[in-house]
Amino acid sequence: MRYYFALVLLMLGQVGSAQDWEDQKIFNGAAGTVTLRIISSTDTDLIAPIIETFVAQTPEISIEYLVTGTADLDRRFRASPNAFDIAISSAMDLQLKLANDGFALALNDVSHPSWAEWRQSLFAFTSEPAAIVINRAAFAGLPLPKSRQDLIQVLRARPDVFRGKVGTYDVRQSGLGYLFATQDARASETFWRLMEVMGGLNVQLYCCSGDMIDDLTDGTIAVAYNVLGSYAAARVGSQDALEIVLPSDFPTTMMRTALVSKETQEPSAAEMFIRHLIALQSDLDDEERLLPALHGPETGAERATISLEPALMTFLDKLKRSKFLTEWEDALIQE
Q1: Secondary structure of residue 151 in the 3-state scheme
Q2: CA 335 → CA 32, 159, 196, 203, 329, distances in Å?
Q3: Residue 135 region, left (φ>0) first, then alpha (ψ -120 to 50), else beta?
Q4: Topology (CATH) of 130-253+316-332
Q5: Residue 8 dihedral angles phi and psi, to the nearest 5°
Q6: How much is the average pLDDT of 142-167?
Q7: Which of 79, 111, 180, 199 is the most buried (most CB within 10 A)?
Q8: What pTM did the predictor assign?
Q9: Phi, psi dihedrals of residue 316, rounded to the nearest 5°
Q10: pLDDT tens-digit profile of 219-251?
Q11: Under 8 Å between Cβ of 53 and 191
Q12: What is the rounded CA–CA span in Å between residue 319 and residue 317?
């Protein structure tokens, strides 16, 4: 009955029709008496091994997996929290605000480090750096940048080579892009100098990492700034043209998070999936995963990782967001 209701909502357009999703896939359990609906910003191919393992171990549960952008995910979930059982997103700040605003169901006795959860309602399960990714061919004869300052110098020295060839997130549309940009701005003024240089070179703006990597691979752009490291790593193995640079000046690493909707009609099944997700991603010896593991302070990651704490929501304040976007547009959109 619950699944039928969800399908009706889809048909009526209250949740969105199939063609509105970036991807949509059903993972059928052998028995399939319960269906979980997961709305996520994570590409299906990257998370499929986790879901496939889950439905194999719990054949009574099937999963409908729906992919959309981080900002769109937040809007859809807030509009219809009863239409989804679980939300997974790389935009930590938007997820934290969802939990803080009462949209997440608190789970009891989930064994998880305090730095990787928020009030037993929001759970981190990966550690993923923002990266500079370059097309090696465009840098023939040029030094490869190791930091943001290096990138500034290279771009300034060869504007004829890099005009129209630099890409980054459109932070007005991308929740993850906005998160990375605000965290970079908090860390150093180098961020704003880099934005001005990129703006002067007719920067190309993107919704998501996948599109940037596609354009890097075919040479449409030569440099992508703040690409999600896990997506780049998944492609570099098969693309000799690409090089990943983790900036040496200051790192920015986000934790992908998951929450159970407070209005889920399948709380037990949803909790089972969260526990499964945490267990797999906390196993540092598992080399088969496509998403990076969750690395804690014992690995030194605390220096780089964006914290799950109230300060993370600072730039979601309407006035602060408006001010930041105005400054960002002034720097990058130089018309």
Answers
A1: helix
A2: 55, 17, 12, 12, 10
A3: beta
A4: D-Maltodextrin-Binding Protein; domain 2 (3.40.190)
A5: -60, -45
A6: 94
A7: 180
A8: 0.90
A9: -90, -10
A10: 999 999 999 888 888 777 656 788 999 998 888
A11: no
A12: 6
- The 10s digit of each residue's pLDDT in 15-44 is 444 458 999 999 998 887 899 999 999 999
> Which of 3-7, 215-219, 240-244, 326-330 has the weakest average pLDDT?
3-7
C-beta of residue 241 within 8 angstroms of C-beta of residue 64: no
Whether 217 and 235 have beta carbons less than 8 Å apart is answered as yes
- d(C-alpha 106, C-alpha 64), whole Å: 22
Give me 204's structure tokens: 């190309």
Chain mean position to CA 166: 20
Q: Which class in CATH covers the domain with range 2-127+255-304? A: alpha beta
Domain ranges of the chain: 2-127+255-304, 130-253+316-332
- Tokens 């171990």 appear where? 57
Alpha carbon of residue 104 to chain centroid:
19
Q: What percent of the chain has pLDDT over 70?
A: 90
Helix (H, G, I), strand (E, B) or coil at 234: helix
**What residues contact 209, with CB distance under 8 A and at least 6 apart?**
176, 224, 227, 228, 231, 232
For the cut 50, the answer to whether the pLDDT of residue 186 exceeds it is yes
Side by side, the strands of the sheet bearing 117-118 are: 23-27, 61-67, 34-40, 86-89, 257-260, 122-124, 117-118
- Provide the Cα torsion 304, 306, 310, 312; round to 10°: 120
Q: Name the DSSP letter for residue 215.
A: H
The CA-based angle 208-209-213, given to 5 degrees, is 130
Q: Which residues contact 195 (CB under 8 A, 6 or more apart)?
A: 328, 331, 332
Tell me the pLDDT band of 314, cut-offs 50, 70 and 90: very high
